[in-house]
Design a protein that fits this description.
Layout (H helix, E strand, L loop, with lengths): L1 H25 L11 H11 L12 H17 L2 E2 L7 E3 L2 E6 L4 E5 L5 E4 L5 E3 L10 E6 L13 E5 L3 H8 L9 E5 L16 E4 L8 E5 L1 H9 L4 E5 L2 E5 L3 E7 L14 E7 L20 H20 L6 E7 L7 H8 L8 E7 L15 E3 L7 H7 L4 E3 L13 H5 L4 E6 L19 H19 L16
Parallel strand pairs: 7-8, 8-9, 9-11, 15-16, 15-17, 17-20, 18-19
Antiparallel strand pairs: 1-14, 2-14, 3-10, 3-13, 4-5, 4-12, 6-11, 7-12, 14-16, 18-20
The structure holds zinc ion.
Length: about 475
Amino acid sequence: MASRYVRVLAPWIVSLALVRAVDARQGAVERADPAVTRADIEACVRALAADELKGRATGTPECVRAGEHLAQALKRAGVAPAGDDGGYLQKVPFARVEYRSAPKLVAWTGAETKHERVQGIDFTFAGGVAGKRSRLRVKLVTKAEEMPAAPDEELALFLDGSQRERQEWLGEGRGAGYGMLITPGTKTPGKEADSRAPRSRDLPGEMARSSTARIQANGELLAGLRDGTIEALRLELESDYTELPAFNVIGKLAGVGTAERPELAQEAIVFSAHYDHIGLDARAAEGADRIRNGADDDASGCAAVLELAEAFAAGPPPARTLIFFFATGEEIGLVGTHHYINYPVVPLERTAANLNFEMIGRPDELIGGAGKLWLTGFELSNLGPRFRELGLAIESDQRPDQNFFQRSDNYAFAIKGVVAQTLSSYNLHRDYHQVSDEPATLDYAHMESCVRAALEAARALADGRIDPAWAPGKNPKR
Ligand SMILES: [Zn+2]
């Protein structure tokens, strides 16, 4: 609802106003230090992981403030904005739905014969909100040709097919614009009536655009929908649908190519880290620390990307175009990065690589300790071997069982075919996702060495010494 949206956004507007006031007082914005130093790295980590930002959960005003801090830092570095409307922020759809009643379903078997259907027995509620129309005509779909030409909010679409078929039939729209979506549940009715309101839930990214109610039909209801005796349905459900603020932060340095290869200017390298974290620990004891600061995860990676941005912005223009990308919503399913991929600054076909940074705050003894990073999916592309040839302290991932290649924002790029890997030194420490992931636990000397190595790797990507490519047969594109 609009009023709640404004309430959620209000602290963010205040913080923006303060930032602008400070800028105006100081006149010209103070220029960032282009050198990679532990002091700069620590300052970035301490700002993002400060208790005041309450663990930067996506959708909170504190997370927006963290993003605004990074936007200001990019501005001070002299990196051009590449978000929406000439700014650094790219809005990412994000919403929350809260339910105030248990869902009830009324079914019509003829023009006037109504039957109330019971949650838990006849149907299972699977999300979304009830539409404005009270009585929805049932439309049975068993193959693609039976799909309506366009979404219709007067229709309750009964998709009688496998999960894969249903996804194909709905396509990109995912059911947005229909009154309700029904899928087959179990053939037998459920055991117990369920009169509870559904739990509130977050709708990230594209899901926030389609709030169409979804139910699974069981038993008699399922049979009646299949044989056509149930002609119309009405879902009764009270809910609040609230849009929440979420933004990626994006800066850009335009490439100029080289004398031999002017076309490099058209290609981009995306340097990324996520700035969201998982917020407050609701299970913490009364009076205890409940702020999950996310210093290592992933304020540390953000500090690295910011140092790269400052270093490149202070030097000559790069050959390839460089994108500095701070993602939101990583912790809730790479939401910000999936959004970026749909609305990239440089088209993905011309995005040569994504080098992502995750948890570089502590040394990992498995790769030789301080000053060393490892690259996820080392053997999947030529990046790791090329970094090695350049003599950089970047090793292979020693814990393939942990599946780190798939556990960060790089993966969203990789499944689109972009060479995309993550640099990390996460040593499986116990502070991961805990209130104890504090700035004081990080090793800033280690980080300084790592960021220097990463900057050399980044320069080789930026100037065209490395042409990123998947190893033969290893492109994870889906
Ligand atoms: Zn992370």
